[in-house]
Design brief:
heterodimer, A: alpha+beta, Butyryl-Coa Dehydrogenase, subunit A, domain 1, 10 strands, B: 372 residues, Butyryl-CoA Dehydrogenase, subunit A, domain 2, 3 domains, two-stranded antiparallel ribbon, 9 strands
Chain lengths: 398, 372
């Protein structure tokens, strides 16, 4: 057992902590308060972060990226999320799909797509799976309903594929420059056998982003519909084999390439950052704010809350770093999924306890506590809903 | 006798309020444009309409123009209203709870002065403010003080003010137009109804506005206010139940999956138990003799109801929102609003820690034996 971090890991952590403190924390609450969900993103901050490597740090060194390991990625996500969870996610969403490019794209596709991604500080990635009528069915395809799941259709015409349909709740759909799109290429086959993964640039004719979703939490992080009306995608943009999308990127068995594997770690590491923020601020508040002439920290009930917040947070930290270490050692386990589920319970309880500590009577709530609680509710449908838990339970029996 | 059988009048008023909520209040309250706005303006036309049904003067005697409703009836009405809009429910709960308490404490002359205009005017609301100091000057009291977070303050036409006087704390009736009384309305999302800061500065109140022979207990926080949380939880649960019967994933309606079915069942359990706690506390208010005859334990039952209900309803709202997937966090959908409203119940006014410690004190101190 060795819990120490390498020189390089500590350097990334320190760099992320500095950037978070100087560039993210000062804008976090103001961005969260902007009413228009399409106007919350801050490109100046994002470009600064990109120049420091926070957009491209998951791209392998041989392709010109930073080639960081999973432990480093987890540390950086947590540090950025400590200042703003949604901003951390905006950066790490690019890692998620650059992992996928590195893992599943051909050399020719990497040339075409990784190079411009690396060169452009505003180049953001996304992936469209979910549709209005297909959410859980994509995550946990029902064996007895072969037609369940995503409906977006792709049909071959010569050297092109014609895409028709809509995606919903897609991160970065309105600001991304390149998207992975899951489309049904054999409507009569079950999801796993009838879906193909396409690379779709933003300027693809026939594609446009739709409504930008107005979320109660994670307001900085963009999310929109994607509309495909006879969108023409060259055959050269098919990732892997036709009808092979789910085998490439995961499905219920858990993939080993980048998509799900990174995504589970990502949500747990991000939650850890929120918990660190809540613990630190709660402790500071308890030691400075007074009630009835005594600092809050003198109250047993406040101490018990702080104890529980820190206990849960440190347990999550251990779990997150163990999963990151297992990924780096190519140890395959269900721990990433379990950590993701666990992070939902932890981040919600810790932020609610923080709100209790801030609480107090009257008509006002501290806007920071309000934000952390709203951000943490996002985990319910991404990481901790019953489908995500059943999916991870399914991996136990594989 | 303890009985959970509702009277025909209680069922009638519950159904009438439920009908107003389903046909008018809820559709207006959950319009996407209203949900997305950062401020949530009071639905005043519907508030007036609910007042017009007698919900504002519920607890006044029939002779005074009210419905002589007991605390339990008030809880039933408040839950129904809150299932549509917690703001309307909170405003009417403040006024209707206070109305009965003040009317009972008034002298015949005060009743003649204050009750007819109160009953006549659909927009006549009442507020309770504590924390002022008063001294006598001739035929008047001179009152000074600032009270924050006063429920109904921006709407109230009459304030019942707790005033520290040389011979103890008493309650004064202070009309809104009394010189020296000012209200600073609060905005924001962390309360239900309307709230504001009430300032009394050199406020001269006629001596005949002194209410009752002794201090009144603050009426806010009683069972009717717990019924607001119940209504919010129920609205969230009903939305999830309806959606789970429509939404098909995994080859069947999602309510048919164990995971979702059990989740909704847990919500139903929490709602039933919370309502039982609120109704029991209400019944205790309506039967003060039930403690001395050892039917009920001598415990602050409204506090028990408050802590249990506010915590349980937040869990219900969160479970309900989860059934909606990503739509559960979207601002133009009501689920995130139910979750927020449930949090408001948890954090507005007293914290649950304070309430719990109050119960602890009751346990440690003068504890008469519960029912043997």
């Amino acid at each position: 057992m060795d819990f120490s971090l390498s020189e390089e890991q500590r350097a990334w952590q320190a760099k992320a902590r500095k950037f978070a403190k100087e560039e993210i924390r000062p804008i976090s609450l103001a961005r969260d308060a902007i009413a228009d969900p399409a106007a919350t993103f801050d490109w100046e901050m994002f470009k600064k972060g990109s120049k420091l490597g926070f957009r491209t740090m998951a791209v392998p060194k041989e392709w010109g990226g930073e080639g960081t390991d999973f432990v480093t990625q987890a540390l950086v996500m947590a540090e950025l999320a400590r200042a703003d969870s949604a901003i951390s996610k905006s950066f790490s969403q690019c890692w998620k799909w650059s992992h996928l490019i590195a893992a599943v794209c051909s050399q020719e596709q990497k040339e075409r797509f990784l190079k411009p991604f690396l060169a452009d500080d505003t180049f953001v990635l996304g992936k469209g799976i979910t549709e209005h009528s297909a959410g859980s069915d994509n995550r946990l395809p029902p064996p007895d309903e072969p037609k369940a799941g995503l409906k977006l259709r792709a049909e071959r015409r010569g050297d092109e594929w014609i895409l028709n349909g809509e995606k919903a709740f897609i991160a970065n759909a309105n600001i991304g420059k390149l998207f992975f799109i899951d489309a049904r290429t054999d409507p009569n086959a079950p999801l796993k056998q009838g879906t193909t993964l396409f690379l779709v640039p933003r300027d693809t004719p026939g594609f446009r982003p739709g409504k930008v979703f107005n979320k109660s939490g994670w307001r900085f992080y963009q999310n929109a519909e994607m509309i495909f009306e006879n969108a023409r995608v060259p055959h050269a943009n098919v990732v892997g084999e036709v009808n092979g999308a789910i085998r490439k990127t995961g499905g219920s068995g858990g993939d080993t390439t980048g998509g799900d594997l990174f995504g589970d770690l990502e949500l747990s590491a991000n939650a850890l950052g929120i918990c660190d923020d809540a613990c630190e601020t709660a402790l500071h508040h308890a030691r400075t704010a007074k009630q009835g002439g005594r600092v809050l920290f003198e109250q047993q009930l406040i101490k018990l809350k702080l104890n529980r917040m820190h206990m849960l947070t440190e347990a999550l930290r251990s779990f997150v770093l163990r999963v990151a270490w297992e990924h780096d050692c190519r140890v395959h386990s269900v721990n990433a999924g379990l950590a993701m589920n666990y992070s939902t319970d932890v981040v919600q309880e810790v932020t609610e306890l923080y709100m209790d500590v801030r609480g107090g009577a009257g008509c006002v709530m501290d806007p920071h506590a309000d934000k952390l609680v709203r951000d943490s509710i996002i985990w319910s449908h991404l990481a901790g809903d019953t489908v995500q838990r059943l999916k991870v339970a399914g991996r136990l029996a594989v | 006798m303890f009985s959970l059988r509702l009277s025909p009048e209680q069922i009638e008023i519950r159904d009438a309020v439920r009908d107003l909520v389903e046909t008018e209040i809820r559709p207006a309250a959950i319009k996407p444009a209203r949900l997305e706005a950062s401020e949530r303006p009071l639905l005043t036309a519907l508030l007036d309409k609910a007042s017009g049904m007698g919900l504002r003067t519920l607890t006044l005697s029939e002779a005074d123009g009210g419905a002589a409703a007991d605390t339990l009836t008030g809880c039933i009405v408040t839950e129904e209203l809150a299932a549509g809009d917690p703001d309307i429910a909170a405003v009417l709960a403040h006024t209707s709870v206070l109305g009965g308490i003040l009317a009972r404490a008034m002298t015949p002359a005060q009743r003649e002065r204050f009750l007819p205009p109160f009953v006549r005017d659909e927009r006549y609301h009442l507020a309770w403010a504590g924390g002022a100091a008063g001294k006598r000057s001739g035929g008047e009291w001179i009152v000074d003080g600032v009270t924050d977070a006063v429920g109904n303050a921006p709407l109230a036409k009459l304030f019942a003010v707790q005033v520290r006087m040389p011979d103890g704390t008493r309650t004064l009736l202070v009309p809104r137009d009394t010189p020296g009384l000012s209200v600073r309305p609060h905005d924001g999302r962390w309360f239900h109804g309307a709230r504001g800061e009430v300032t009394l500065k050199d406020c001269r109140v006629p001596a005949e506005n002194l209410l009752g022979p002794e201090e009144l207990d603050p009426p806010v926080g009683g069972p009717a206010f717990q019924a607001i949380a119940l209504g919010i939880g129920r609205a969230a649960y009903e939305a999830a139940l309806a959606y789970a019967q429509l939404r098909v994933q995994g080859g069947r309606r999602i309510i048919e999956h164990q995971a979702i079915g059990a989740k909704l069942a847990r919500c139903a359990m929490k709602l039933e138990v919370a309502r039982a706690a609120v109704w029991r506390a209400a019944w205790a208010c309506d039967h003060p003799e039930a403690v001395s005859d050892r039917s009920l334990p001598d415990l602050p039952l409204a506090t028990v109801a408050r802590v249990f209900t506010s915590e349980a309803m937040l869990e219900v709202a969160k479970h309900a929102a989860e059934c909606f997937g990503a739509m559960g966090v979207m601002r133009d959908m009501p689920l995130q609003q139910y979750v927020h409203d449930a949090r408001v119940c948890l954090h507005a006014d007293r914290s649950n820690d304070e309430s719990t410690l109050e119960l602890a004190q009751a346990l440690a101190g003068d504890r008469r034996a519960a029912a043997a």
